[in-house]
Amino acid sequence: MRLDLYLVQQGYFPSRQKAIDAIKNNRVKINSSVVAKPSYDIDNDKQIEVMRLEADFVSRAGIKLHYALQYFHVELKNSVCLDIGSSTGGFTDCCLQHGARLVYAIDVGTNQLDTALRCDQRVILRENTNARMLTTADFETLPDFICMDVSFISVKLLIPTVASLLKSGKEAVILIKPQFEVGQRFLTKKGIVKDSRQEKRVLDEIASLLLENNLIQSNYIKSPIKGREGKIEYLVYLIKK
């Protein structure tokens, strides 16, 4: 099959023209090598990597999740996803572009989700919702995949919820923002962590808590782009035991 058609079929792009543009701009790699021909004959067993731009998603958060999905080889085609801390919808948008058939977008706030996503029948929006209170009874179909991007709260408070909603063998990706984990006294006035050892400490604490909740942490990586004010963030990949 032609590469441009394959990318659309697999949910990488919403249209053939967007796929062609990406290929011609050297943003598509196959087995780690750039391929610039839309007509390239692609086999199913080849590894594809698409380099995304901020404009590809409704917010820059989409770039972060996209990078993690590719790095950890997470397949979302036809899956049901849960986006905790959906905000503008960068993670939700990314899930849909990766082929998710349904995304539950959960946020404690209101009127933040992008208008196009609000109108998308594949998105079930639940605003004014405290994710810590979620139970399996809140979902008609339990998620195959959970992604989480929260601010002004520690992810440690939400890990039990993630564990309770995932079935055995299902996956999750969590964005960790150290400035909301280390404690105020370890931050500069701009909210940047003063000492990288504190980042290591909270990553270790989170790893221990994940294990306590039957979540296997495969690995963590730095986000491909920094947060506001140049803050370093991490992406953690998990599998439920």
TrEMBL record:
* UniProt family annotation: Belongs to the TlyA family.
What are the recorded Gene Ontology BP terms?
methylation
Q: Name one GO molecular function term.
A: methyltransferase activity
Q: Which Gene3D superfamilies match?
A: RNA-binding S4 domain (3.10.290.10), Vaccinia Virus protein VP39 (3.40.50.150)
Q: Which SUPFAM superfamilies match?
A: Alpha-L RNA-binding motif, S-adenosyl-L-methionine-dependent methyltransferases
**What protein name is recorded for this chain?**
Hemolysin A
Note the Pfam families from the entry: FtsJ, S4
PROSITE patterns according to UniProt:
S4 (PS50889)
Query: Which SMART domains does the UniProt entry name for this protein?
Result: S4 (SM00363)
